[in-house]
Amino acid sequence: MRAKKSLGQNFLQDEGVIHNIVRLINPQADEPIIEIGPGQGAITDHLQASGAQLRLIELDTDLIPKLESRYAQAANVRIDHMDALQLELTGEPVKVVGNLPYNISTPLLIKMLYQSAQVSKMVFMLQKEVVQRICAVPGQKLFGRLSVMLQHRFDCSAHLHIPPEAFIPQPKVDSQIVVMVPKVNPKQVPLPELEQLVKQAFAMRRKTIRNNLKKIVTTAQLEAVGIDPGQRAETIELTQFEQLTLLLTDADH
Ligand code: SAM
Fold first, then answer.
1. Which residue has the CA at smallest separation from atom 18 of ligand 1?
2. pTM, 2 dp
3. Which residues pair with 122 in a beta bridge?
4. How far away, in angstroms, is 11 Cα from ligand 1 center?
5. Overall number of domains in the chain
6. Rama region for 37: left / alpha / beta (φ>0; ψ in -120 to 50; rest)
7. ipTM of the predicted structure?
8. Is 26 among the annotated ligand-binding positions?
9. What's the whole-number average pLDDT of the chain?
10. Are residues 217 and 169 in the same domain?
11. Which of 39, 64, 89, 114 is deepest in the core (most CB within 10 A)?
């Protein structure tokens, strides 16, 4: 079968890599797991064999009959032909995993962020740079919107570098796995407001935080949460973004 570039199809073929990913997912019998983009089943076969209650979300019309026949005998597999960006989680927290099509990874991560209460753990293979962005800390060049937003709700860790040779066809970039576990007690901050603030704060990376936020925040408000108005957003701590959001939303009421 020809891989479709538009659907970000790079199929895993390295058994060692597949084994390591499955180990990080750590599937358990009867636990609910959603796999996004099962493709030809490289990871799926192992998840199915664990006895987990699997829900597969695949957009490619050509792959659906193949998946249906591959798992025809498996009572623990349900296949949904749909766009993962339309996924609405309800009920008990579920593991969400996948070797994601790189073109939807950022919107999907943001979508999952808004549904973090319905997630028990996420294990995603992503472009290495995206994983580095997610896990970056203040002071690092890649620290930005994705780092602040995802670290606000999840404990994030980077694992396993995966070279292009692990896939057919080979992607142009290196890949890496990120594991994200919802925080037990995330600070209660309204997400849309935090997202808006962070977006503004990083709008022009070379500008100071005062300049990027001058329409919405006063110097006194920055100083109230311990931010020097001359700092750049990439040096500001997650807790300071959270506090600033709270200060602004409280001031609105
Ligand atoms: N899991 C397989 C593997 O590791 O070999 C395939 C991974 S491939 C990088 C990404 C998969 O996601 C493909 O099967 C592709 O058709 C599917 N896909 C692409 N866009 C999607 C979307 N919006 N929603 C659900 N699946 C999508």
1. 37
2. 0.96
3. 96, 180
4. 9
5. 2
6. left
7. 0.99
8. no
9. 96
10. no
11. 39
